[in-house]
Write a structure and sequence with these properties.
It is built from six helices and eleven strands.
Length: 249
Amino acid sequence: MPIDYFANTLTIQHGTEDDFSLSEKQLAVWLCDGSNADLQTLNLKQILHPDEHCILAQRKKQQAQQEYCISRMIIKRVLVSTFGANATEFASRFDAEQRQLQLWHHDQLLPVSVSLSHSNGFVAVAMSLGNHAFGLDLERTNKPRAFLKLAKHFYHPDEVELIEQSAANEQQAACFYRIWTLKEALAKTLKKPIAQLLRPNVFELIQSNQLHSQSTQINQFDLSLICASPLEFKHIQASTLNEKSLSIN
């Protein structure tokens, strides 16, 4: 394994509240804690498109509602900063056939690529101008699990061996979740079901498909980003974000 997939190579920054614009050949990531978001205080009528209000109404659990709203607030902040227009004129729609989230302005598909992930109220959103294939995954790593047992059931034998070599339980968890976030990010990049990528060796797949990957650990979460083209990874703007800093005037 010539590339160290367990190194934390993604840069974490606490950017300014105005740093929401996109530029060519850059891939930017925003990470936000939405677990305490009070949906009653958010002016969602000035943020969500009518289609998005319908999707939100289908989310029954509070955490799912929080994660949906925060992810759309990040997306809308970026689109408003990049293209102008009102937030409600932009719509996010998942294309099941293409297995990807698409962004629209009225009836026009925007030249923006996006991947998002959420875990335990935290939301991560990756965006780039242009048609780029990339995937993002975020997982909380302090959940008690039988990591070795799960790995033997789902993972490639070489991946299991890596986890077995991690003696301490914390190291096993870090190794298990790094492999998991890479597999999830790879599935989104290749637009394949995660079930098809659990058993194969994720490191060999990344290399054989000539993909670029970076990962990091932050606030008891593991985050991996895989991209098909060598875009510049702009930064992760981290957990200083909250629902107030995401408000759209």
